[in-house]
Specification:
The protein is of the alpha/beta class. It has helices at about 20-30, 45-55, 75-95, 110-120, 135-145, 155-165, 205-215, 230-240, 250, 260-270, 290-295, 305-320, 345-350, and strands spanning about 10, 35-40, 60-65, 125-130, 150-155, 170-175, 180, 220-225, 245, 275-280, 285-290. It is built from 13 helices and eleven strands. Helix 1 packs parallel to helix 2 (about 45-55), helix 4 runs parallel beside helix 5 (about 135-145) and helix 7 packs parallel to helix 8.
Length: about 350
C-alpha cells in the first residue's frame, strides 16, 4: 500500500523552467500520481498564480523551492575573475544568434523570503526544498501553517542533517537523475568553483543502492529519484526501502509536459548518445544530453546562479532558432526509455 503521506507510489518531479505547469500537475493527479510545482526562477506572483491554477483544477500538489547558497552571494575575487573569463568565452556562442551576454549578476537569491512568506500566508499541502536546507525556523513555521516539509538529499550524511531539521520526508536523489544535482554538503570535487574530479558518468551504484544506504541512516519516509523509468525500476527502489519514486525524465516527453518541443524531440533523437553532468549552463552540476555546448565548455565555473544568468539569453536565442546544440537538454541516464503520449498512459504502465 502507498505511504499515507503520499497516497501514491508515483511523484512527478518539480521541473523548473516551465515543464511542471499546473496543467501537468493536474494530469499527474488525475492519473493517480502526485505532482509538484516548481517555484524556481519565478516571481512570487507567478508562483502564487500557479498555486491558484492547480487548486482550481482540483489537483493535489506540492511546491518546490530552491534554497539559496549564501556563499554564492559573496564570491571570491578569484571566482569573479573566472566568471568574467567565462562570460568572454560565451560571446562566441551568443554571436551565432545575435544575442548578448549580460553583465555578471551576483545578487540573486530567487526571491527566497518572498516565497516563504507567501507559502506561510497561503499554505499548500507539501513544500519541498532543493539545493540546501531551509533552516529550523522555516521548517517549524511551515509545520505550524499545516504543510508537510520535504528536503532533497544525495547522501546519507545529507539525510541525517535534513532529518535533524525536522523534515517529514526526504527525496533521495541519485547521480543518475536528470537536471540539477541537489547536493548541498561540501565535496572535494566541488571546491574552487570547478567541476574538476566530478565523474561525468555519475557515481558507482544505483538509485536503489543509495536508497538502501539512506534507509539505514534515517527512519523518515523516502522518495527515490533518479533513473526510474519503468515498473522494474519502481519495484527496485521500493524493495530498497523507498515509499515512492519521483519521476522527471520519464514524463518529459508527455503531451502535458511544459518542456519545449525541441527538448522532447532531442530525447527521442538518435543524434544524442549520452548524458553528462555539466556546470556549463547554470553553474551547478546538472545532467544533460551531451551537445556541442556541453563539449565546448567542460571547465565552466561552478557558480550558481551567476552562470545561469550569463547563459540565459544565449539559451533562449538558441531555442528560438530551433538549435538543440546550445540549449540545456536535461536528461537522466534512462532517457532512451522516455515515452511520448499522455501522462495517464505513462503512469498506467507504472501503477497498473
Amino acid at each position: 500500500m502507498p505511504h499515507p503521506l503520499f497516497g501514491t507510489r508515483i511523484i512527478a518531479a518539480p521541473m523548473a523552467g516551465g515543464t511542471s505547469t499546473p496543467a501537468f500537475v493536474s494530469a499527474v493527479h488525475s492519473a493517480g500520481g502526485l505532482g509538484f510545482l516548481a517555484a524556481g526562477y519565478k516571481t512570487v506572483e507567478a508562483m502564487q498564480a500557479e498555486i491558484r491554477s492547480a487548486r482550481a483544477a482540483g489537483a493535489r500538489f506540492g511546491m518546490n523551492v530552491f534554497v539559496p547558497d549564501p556563499a554564492q552571494l559573496e564570491q571570491s575575487e578569484a571566482l569573479r575573475d573566472r566568471l568574467e573569463e567565462y562570460r568572454s568565452r560565451l560571446r562566441t556562442d551568443a554571436r551565432r544568434y545575435g544575442a548578448e551576454v549580460p553583465p555578471l549578476r551576483l545578487d540573486d537569491d530567487d526571491r527566497w523570503q518572498g516565497k516563504i512568506d507567501a507559502l506561510l500566508e497561503d499554505p499548500v499541502e507539501m513544500v519541498s526544498f532543493t539545493f540546501g536546507l531551509p533552516g529550523f525556523d522555516v521548517v517549524r513555521a511551515l509545520h505550524r501553517a499545516g504543510s508537510v516539509v520535504l528536503a532533497t538529499v544525495t547522501t546519507p550524511a545529507e539525510a541525517l542533517q535534513a532529518a535533524a531539521q525536522g523534515m517529514d520526508a526526504l527525496v533521495v536523489q541519485d547521480a543518475s537523475a536528470g537536471g540539477h544535482s541537489a547536493a548541498f554538503q561540501p565535496r572535494a570535487e566541488r571546491q574552487n568553483g570547478t567541476m574538476a574530479g566530478l565523474p561525468h558518468d555519475g557515481r558507482p551504484g544505483t538509485t536503489a543502492e543509495l536508497v538502501a544506504l539512506v534507509r539505514s541512516a534515517v527512519g523518515l519516509p523516502l522518495v527515490a529519484a533518479g533513473g526510474v523509468m519503468d515498473r522494474d525500476g519502481l519495484d527496485a527502489v521500493l524493495a530498497a526501502g523507498a515509499d515512492a519514486a519521483q519521476l522527471g525524465t520519464a514524463l518529459l516527453r508527455t503531451d502535458e509536459s511544459g518542456a519545449r518541443q525541441l527538448h522532447k524531440d532531442a530525447l527521442a533523437s538518435p543524434h544524442f548518445t549520452r548524458t553528462r553532468l555539466t556546470a556549463a549552463f547554470t553553474g551547478r552540476p546538472a545532467r544533460a544530453l551531451v551537445n556541442e555546448f556541453v563539449r565546448d565548455h567542460p571547465g565552466a565555473p561552478e557558480a550558481y546562479p551567476a552562470v545561469h544568468h550569463l547563459t540565459a539569453p544565449l539559451r533562449a536565442a538558441a531555442a528560438a532558432a530551433g538549435d538543440p546544440e546550445r540549449v540545456n537538454l536535461w536528461a537522466g541516464t534512462g532517457w532512451r526509455q522516455a515515452r511520448s503520449g499522455s501522462v495517464a498512459d505513462v503512469l498506467a504502465g507504472l501503477l497498473g
